[in-house]
């Protein structure tokens, strides 16, 4: 105990070892769902080709590395894990949407992590400059849009919405819902989760997933999202099956994803990979969202924990950002999408967590996920999807902070938000939010209000979407130079 106190300065921070460990347990309970949701999201029940076990290993290790670095180096009570929203973009936007191989998508995350780390170096200073150069309302809209994106994915996988040739989307056939129908089970448990959260129950999301799963297993519930004959994806079992509760064993090292990002870099621009232009756009999108998601979360949690000073600056922000970048690099090398700081860290802060021991505790607890692959893989799709809607609702809270009365920003912020779910792409939402903002400024003759960063983003995104013939400017240039 004395060694821990000395290492983390617990007594000086006005806390105790017991309080810090208790705070770590609290934070873990609020974000343990990621051990279920992230492997399900990235493997998508076989649709992406990424093995579930590989992603589970990468998720647990990336969280452990990020939390440990955050705790030991930055000495802050902030927990990290693969980020929601970015994993959805990885799966539905990049791999399934753009058709980019999953190993090249991991390579984009790996490169993004390195760039994020370089930008976070105090000697470079690009991170702070870039964050301050983007209009605040566009940054807020990005987080809210991701929340809407998660919600439409979640509602689809719960079985509550379906495609419709006349109206694009429509509600499912609710008159067929019975006690053993996944859609009904997930909706009841969604409301249960919301009620538990309103009562301040720690671990409400993981409780909701557990109840939905047990209900589904007990009734061999019908999983509408996996019924291909009825218009579902058909990537997993149509009926929920009990897991082997005795199968507690080490998941093993990743067989396919470990190191795949390194070899995939050589496939960029080849016939078997992705065009250099597409790779750059994906990588830039990961970087953009990672920077602002991390900045917003660190600021929000840091303010709650009392680590934001009178100059509105976060204590040890450089170390915190470097921890995030390091975890992203490790996670991509092992097989998961971008790792980021979690807003759920507030739960531990409110429980009394003040030092890095809280973060280290979370990291150690994340390793428990390495021994329950069969249990996690048996979680019904509708049960895990319910969590996406809850998280989406939480991310939408910040939309209230957008200045909707400012006509210069209202439409760009709105487009940023709604294009994400409507196009199933975080990248498209960000891009057209930036493009529309700059275009409106130019049409008003307010070009002097655009800083160099916004000019650069405007030019980059216009070049990606527009170009000679049937290709974008980047691909046209790269092809002319023989790089594609």
General description of the model:
Helices cover 61% and strands 3% of the residues. Helix 6 (102-120) packs across helix 12, helix 8 runs parallel beside helix 18 and helix 19 (426-443) crosses helix 20 (452-465). It has one domain (2-480). The protein has 484 residues and is mainly α. The protein has helices spanning 2-8, 17-31, 34-43, 52-74, 86-95, 102-120, 126-133, 136-158, 182-198, 204-219, 260-264, 276-305, 317-334, 345-350, 356-366, 373-377, 381-395, 407-423, 426-443, 452-465, 473-480; strands at residues 80-82, 161-164, 168-171, 339-341. The model has no long low-confidence stretch (mean pLDDT 86).
Could you name the key traits of this structure?
globular, 484 residues, two-stranded antiparallel sheet, 4 strands
Shape: globular
Percent helix among the residues?
Answer: 55-70%
**N-to-C SSE string, H for helix and E for strand:** HHHHEHHHHEEHHHHHEHHHHHHHH
| Rg (CA only) | 22 Å
Characterize the biggest β-sheet: 2 strands, antiparallel
Structural class, judged by helices and strands?
mainly alpha
Topology:
Blueprint: H1 2-8, H2 17-31, H3 34-43, H4 52-74, E1 80-82, H5 86-95, H6 102-120, H7 126-133, H8 136-158, E2 161-164, E3 168-171, H9 182-198, H10 204-219, H11 260-264, H12 276-305, H13 317-334, E4 339-341, H14 345-350, H15 356-366, H16 373-377, H17 381-395, H18 407-423, H19 426-443, H20 452-465, H21 473-480
Antiparallel strand pairs: 1-4, 2-3
Helix pairs in contact: 2-15, 3-4, 3-5, 4-13, 4-15, 6-12, 6-13, 8-12, 8-17, 8-18, 8-19, 9-10, 9-17, 10-17, 18-19, 19-20
């Amino acid at each position: 105990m004395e060694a821990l106190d000395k290492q983390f300065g617990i007594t000086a921070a006005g806390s105790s070892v017991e309080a810090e460990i208790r705070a770590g347990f609290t934070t873990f309970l609020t974000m343990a769902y990621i051990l279920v949701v992230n492997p399900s999201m990235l493997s998508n029940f076989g649709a992406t080709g990424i093995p579930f076990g590989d992603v589970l290993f990468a998720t647990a290790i990336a969280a452990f590395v990020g939390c440990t670095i955050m705790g030991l180096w930055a000495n802050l009570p902030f927990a990290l894990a693969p980020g929601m929203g970015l994993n959805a973009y990885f799966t539905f936007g990049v791999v399934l949407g753009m058709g980019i191989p999953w190993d090249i998508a991991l390579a984009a995350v790996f490169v993004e992590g390195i760039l994020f780390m370089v930008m976070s170096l105090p000697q470079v200073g690009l991170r702070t400059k870039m964050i301050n150069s983007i209009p605040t309302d566009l940054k807020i809209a990005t987080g809210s849009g991701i929340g809407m994106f998660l919600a439409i994915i979640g509602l689809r996988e719960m079985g509550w919405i379906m495609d419709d040739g006349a109206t694009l989307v429509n509600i499912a056939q609710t008159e067929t819902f019975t006690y053993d129908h996944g859609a009904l089970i997930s909706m009841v448990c969604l409301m249960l989760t919301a009620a538990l959260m309103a009562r301040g129950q720690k671990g409400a999301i993981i409780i909701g997933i557990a109840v939905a799963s047990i209900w589904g297993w007990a009734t061999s519930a019908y999983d509408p999202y996996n019924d291909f004959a009825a218009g579902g994806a058909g990537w997993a079992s149509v009926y929920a099956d009990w897991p082997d509760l005795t199968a507690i064993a080490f998941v093993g090292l990743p067989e396919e994803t470990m190191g795949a990002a390194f070899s995939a870099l050589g496939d960029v621009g080849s016939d078997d990979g992705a065009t250099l232009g597409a790779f750059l756009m994906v990588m830039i999108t990961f970087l953009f969202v990672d920077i602002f998601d991390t900045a917003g979360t660190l600021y929000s949690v840091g303010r709650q924990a009392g680590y934001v000073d009178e100059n509105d600056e976060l204590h040890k922000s450089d170390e915190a950002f470097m921890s995030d970048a390091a975890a992203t690099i490790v996670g991509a090398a092992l097989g998961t999408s971008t790792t980021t700081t979690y807003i759920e860290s507030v739960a531990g802060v409110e429980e009394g967590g003040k030092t890095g021991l809280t973060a280290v505790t979370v990291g150690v607890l994340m390793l428990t996920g390495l021994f329950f692959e069969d249990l996690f893989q048996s979680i019904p799709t509708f049960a895990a999807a319910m969590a996406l809607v809850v998280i989406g609702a939480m991310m939408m809270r910040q939309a209230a902070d957008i200045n909707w009365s400012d006509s210069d920003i209202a439409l760009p912020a709105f487009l940023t938000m709604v294009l994400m779910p409507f196009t199933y792409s975080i990248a498209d939402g960000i891009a057209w939010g930036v493009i529309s903002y700059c275009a409106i400024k130019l049409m008003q003759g307010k070009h002097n209000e655009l800083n160099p960063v916004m000019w650069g983003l405007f030019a980059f995104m216009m070049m990606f979407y527009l170009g000679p013939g049937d290709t974008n400017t980047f691909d046209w240039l790269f092809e002319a130079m023989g790089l594609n």
